């Protein structure tokens, strides 16, 4: 009842008829949860495993077990076999590095309900009654969710194929059985997020194709396994994450899970009285219909993702691409327009890539993946080339192949083949400057420099769920070295203060008026930032960008405008505040921040800042300033990891700043 009253308070200001309808809906939902909880406590959700006795999927998976010999030969020739076996040994020893934990021994029984980083444990009870987030403690629910995605099963399977050692099959069974024992349907924290249920289901399916012929795994195990998989499908269908203001990567993962489960179970169907009202045919039909629709909801016309995050773009592209390939394997096609936009998503990733092959982490990043088919323990969070490798084979594009010479294993597992990238025609460095106005990304390039500027709509068309206050901020890489970077995200609910610091204006390489944020956000509302900036690109060419935003208009009466000019060995940045004419200008103090890359050390000589890196040097000159300081800051290269860095903070009492960064 308390939760219902809390929700009622949030309806203040809503039209009466809408408020009444919403209250009635919430009350009905609360009643349903009470009944559901009572029912499950006394009659747990289950199916008779004998219903699945002897079941084998007749559908085609992403890779074919008949290719085991060919795949093993490739892995050994590429000298990947030893690292795969080492990763699998760590998994068998229950040593995991999840979300910044560092390699940790998790004990004999895996802590499926625990954030082992803080030793906080969520009690096993009805999933709707579990408080998954408490901002007053440091526990992060993403930790047990990440472990329970079981994305490590793929690596166990690869080691089993390479060695034939039954210990990997036995470990797979032991973990599945342990998970089933501790996570009855709807009765643990690992049912609290449908996205994770869907990702887990598909990773379980992937393991089948490695272990199905293992003599160590008896029929009774596979019956239990398939019973749970089927219940995963029913749960997803009954708990879709499409009830908010906008759909996003969560809902898309639901659809990917339904498609995967629908393909896997095919025409298999159990008695309607015990199937909770849905079956695999319904999962597949719904998943296909909605995935086609979501392509044009979540992906902008220029191929960028509307969550305004490069990392979530990668995740969404993976969900679309893997599902599309899986469907094609089974004779199911999407529309031509869908395929064109999917290809554009990968063109976007190629063109956002820096010369060193990595991608700026703009907006939120939580290291989310769908299937981790290579480098389970060591994949690089801002390296998106594994997807370009798969897309290169799927779309038969040499430019994608040329961009991803290090990711051949992913192409083999997911696309079924790998063409030597040396046959490709165009290197990535041949790419020129490019604009993505729908997504709000602008890249200036020359033979030595890469500069990305952020200028566009907040995520979810202005809701700002995964956005940061980064309008008109930029990244700068020179000769493969990051001079100026985006700081990353660090964590979400585990530390709301650090969450807010990392998404603040001062933590980005842009300009701040007084102490104001570009877009205001509530301290404890971690996934909302309503649009105030309405950023606009006013001019873009091969070597120049001009843009502005209105985030300070109603706070101190000014518009921030920035010009960026890229020359052979120089980046010129001109910032100025323009009086909007809405009342008086309340503050003319201008603070410019420049977040330095992880290997850059800065020294100061009056108004000149020297950047030192790998024996080279660049200089930064800032004109019209009252003061310039080098201060300590933070960077986060992956979720849960925070390292020290430096940033430059310049203050001007005028309405203008002029900055030159020069290199030799």
UniProtKB/TrEMBL annotation:
Subcellular location: Periplasm
InterPro entries: Chondroitin_lyas (IPR008929), Hepar_II_III_C (IPR012480), Hepar_II_III_N (IPR031680)
Taxonomy, superkingdom: Bacteria
Record-level Gene Ontology MF annotations: lyase activity
Sequence ranges assigned to domain Heparinase II/III-like C-terminal in this UniProt record: 433-663
Chief location: periplasm
Claim: Lyase is one of the keywords in the record: yes
Record has Transmembrane helix as a keyword: no
GO terms under cellular component: periplasmic space
Keywords: Lyase, Periplasm, Signal
Protein name as annotated: Uncharacterized protein
Highest classification ranks of the organism: Bacteria, Bacillati, Bacillota, Bacilli, Bacillales
């Amino acid at each position: 009842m308390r939760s219902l009253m809390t929700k009622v308070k949030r309806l203040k200001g809503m039209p009466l008829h809408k408020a009444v309808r919403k209250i009635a809906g919430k009350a009905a939902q609360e009643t349903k949860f009470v009944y559901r909880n009572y029912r499950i406590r006394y009659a747990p959700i289950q199916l008779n495993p004998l219903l699945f006795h002897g079941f084998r999927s007749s559908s085609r998976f992403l890779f074919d077990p008949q290719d085991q010999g060919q795949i093993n030969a490739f892995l050994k020739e590429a000298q990947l076999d030893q690292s795969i076996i080492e990763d699998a040994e760590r998994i068998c020893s229950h040593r995991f590095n999840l979300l910044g934990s560092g390699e940790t021994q998790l004990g004999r029984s895996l802590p499926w309900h625990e954030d082992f980083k803080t030793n906080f444990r969520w009690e096993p009870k009805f999933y709707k009654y579990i408080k998954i987030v408490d901002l007053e403690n440091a526990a992060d629910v993403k930790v047990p969710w990440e472990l329970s995605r079981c994305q490590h099963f793929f690596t166990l399977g690869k080691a089993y194929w390479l060695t034939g050692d039954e210990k990997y099959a036995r470990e797979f069974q032991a973990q599945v059985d342990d998970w089933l024992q501790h996570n009855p349907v709807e009765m643990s924290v690992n049912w609290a997020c449908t996205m994770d249920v869907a990702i887990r289901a598909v990773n379980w399916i992937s393991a089948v194709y490695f272990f199905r012929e293992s003599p160590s795994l008896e029929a009774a195990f596979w019956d239990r396994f398939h019973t749970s998989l089927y219940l995963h499908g029913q749960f997803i269908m009954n708990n879709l994450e499409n009830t908010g203001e906008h759909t996003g990567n969560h809902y898309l993962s639901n659809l990917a899970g339904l498609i995967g489960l629908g393909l896997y179970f095919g025409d298999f169907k159990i008695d309607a009285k015990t199937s909770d009202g849905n079956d695999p045919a319904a999962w597949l039909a719904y998943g296909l219909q909605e995935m086609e629709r979501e392509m044009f909801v979540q992906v902008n016309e220029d191929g960028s993702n509307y969550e305004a995050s490069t990392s979530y773009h990668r995740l969404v592209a993976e969900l679309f691409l893997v599902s599309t390939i899986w469907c094609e394997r089974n004779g199911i096609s999407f529309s031509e327009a869908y395929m064109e936009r999917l290809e554009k998503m990968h063109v976007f990733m190629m063109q956002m890539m820096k010369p060193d092959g990595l991608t700026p982490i703009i907006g939120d990043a939580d290291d989310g993946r769908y299937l981790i088919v290579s480098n389970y323990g060591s994949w690089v969070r801002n390296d998106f080339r594994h997807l370009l490798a798969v897309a290169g084979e799927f779309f038969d594009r040499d430019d994608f192949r040329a961009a991803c010479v290090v990711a051949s294993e992913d192409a083999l597992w997911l696309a079924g083949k790998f063409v030597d990238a040396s046959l490709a025609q165009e290197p990535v460095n041949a790419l020129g400057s490019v604009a993505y106005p729908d997504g709000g990304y602008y890249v200036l390039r020359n033979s030595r420099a890469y500069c990305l500027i952020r200028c566009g709509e907040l995520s979810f068309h202005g809701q700002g769920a995964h956005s940061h206050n980064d309008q008109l901020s930029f990244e700068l890489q020179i000769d493969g070295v990051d001079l100026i970077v985006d700081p990353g995200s660090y964590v979400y609910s585990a530390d709301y203060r650090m969450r807010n610091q990392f998404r603040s204006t001062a933590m980005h390489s842009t300009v701040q008026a007084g102490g104001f944020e570009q877009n205001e956000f509530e301290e404890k509302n971690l996934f909302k930032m309503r649009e105030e900036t309405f950023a606009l690109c006013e001019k873009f060419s091969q070597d120049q960008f001009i843009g502005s935003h209105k985030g300070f208009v109603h706070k101190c009466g000014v518009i921030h405008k920035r010009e960026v000019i890229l020359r052979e060995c120089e980046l010129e940045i001109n910032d100025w505040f323009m009086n909007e004419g809405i009342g008086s200008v309340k503050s003319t103090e201008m603070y410019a921040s420049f977040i330095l890359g992880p290997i850059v050390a800065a020294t100061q000589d009056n108004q000149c800042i020297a950047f030192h890196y790998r024996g080279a040097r660049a200089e930064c000159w800032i004109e019209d300033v009252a003061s310039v300081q080098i201060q300590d800051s933070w960077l986060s290269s992956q979720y849960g990891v925070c390292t020290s860095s430096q940033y430059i903070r310049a203050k001007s009492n005028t309405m203008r700043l002029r900055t030159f960064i020069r290199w030799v």
